[in-house]
Amino acid sequence: MEEQTSLRDVPAVAAGVSVAGARTTATRGPLAVTAESCFRIASLTKVFTSTALVRTLRDKGVPLGTPVVELLPGLAPDWRADESLTIEQILGQVSGLSESVDAATVMALGDGDGALLEAARLVVRAGNEREPGERWSYYNGNYILAGSILAALSGTTFESALKGDLLDRWGLARTGFETSTASVTGWNGTTELPLLGYPRTRRPSGGLWSSVPELLAVGEGLLADQALLEEISRPRTRSGDPMAYGLGWALGRSGQMYLNGRLPGYRAAMVLVPDRDYVSVALANQQTALPALARLLSDMQQPLTGDDIANVVNDFAA
């Protein structure tokens, strides 16, 4: 961290690494934080949504190849998407859905318990622009559907399903959608940003707060469940796609799993190297910090893989 000169103006940075379950964490910056402080993790939320849904499907004996419309039958009257679209394809960002439903549109649906399903209705009503499986394209609408499926399978809201199916099971008491005394404020340049809520319709794709130890615990949990890990890390993309991608994770050339997250005032990045039992994560509360976080995580894993992955971690589409 000290070698990353571009981190020196970041108010708060927290990072950690776990190798075979042995953890090291560190913080830096003028704002007093600890490794347990909570940052917005933005699109790292997709790891939680994907993991919880794959686990729930496994527990209930529902194949990943099940068509989405079968699990969300209430959307059938408005369904204009390809009826063969599967759970696996939405988690793998190869759905081919028309990417016409934006953040403002789903935010306008409000924060009621039924808002997420109504957002999913808009997503499938927009139809497909290409056949499912044909090409990878990063679209948060896929995870609106994934969150709706998780809620439907659990018979509750998405937030309650995520808490019961993953957060509580893995002892992640500090990870959630609400701010707390441990929440770190974000910064844009020299401007401190207010702590704001996050719309429920977008939560499956990017709403969580979490900390370095709890993100390391998620990585450790994946590494400990070989069947789950193999399912999530298997590529769902084709050779001509912009990147290799599994279920919620981009995939590196030496088996790395990586992604980043971006929200106003926050940047986050995470890397797994499964065959080395290795997890690393870095969080910052400054909008300009992502290239430095990507460089930090790349330098940490490079002795294990020989790969410089700073650019791909920074350029990931989150």
UniProtKB/TrEMBL annotation:
Annotated EC: 3.-.-.-
One Pfam family here: Beta-lactamase
Enzyme type, top EC level: hydrolase
GO molecular-function terms, A-Z: hydrolase activity
UniProt keyword list: Hydrolase
All copies of domain Beta-lactamase-related, residue ranges: 9-289
InterPro entries per UniProt: AmpC-like, Beta-lactam-related, Beta-lactam/transpept-like
Signal peptide: none
SUPFAM superfamilies: beta-lactamase/transpeptidase-like
UniProt keyword Translocase, yes or no: no
Full protein name: Serine hydrolase domain-containing protein
Upper classification of the organism: Bacteria, Bacillati, Actinomycetota, Actinomycetes, Kitasatosporales
